[in-house]
Specification:
Length: 105
């Protein structure tokens, strides 16, 4: 449900496209998710970053199944996963989810 709220606020404030990632707690407080904002509400394509590329999470992190390998590649101790397409990922702490987003920009 965050997408409709985000797109409405962006339109109201004339800040369309500014937000690239949304971070939110997992159900049951098990960790944090970082999700790329789609180009349009409900779309599968992602927004473009400062250099014109899609703002999915870092390509070298995508789809790594072994958590120890993902930690090694990313340098983030409590990273949990990054989807194959890079549109979403997770970490155990908010600080690490923020780091994932910042590093991916």
């Amino acid at each position: 449900p965050w997408q409709s709220s985000l797109f409405a606020v962006e339109k109201e404030t004339d800040n369309i496209g500014l937000v690239k990632y949304v971070l939110y707690p997992e159900k049951g407080n098990k960790g944090w998710r970082v999700q790329s904002v789609p180009s349009n509400e409900g779309a599968f394509s992602l927004r473009k970053g400062p250099k014109g590329a899609n703002v999915g999470l870092k390509e070298e992190w995508r789809g790594i199944k072994q958590q120890d390998e993902l930690v090694k590649v990313s340098g983030i101790e409590d990273i949990v996963f990054v989807h194959n397409s890079g549109f979403i990922g997770g970490a155990k702490s908010l600080a690490s989810a923020v780091k994932m987003a910042v590093m991916s920009l």
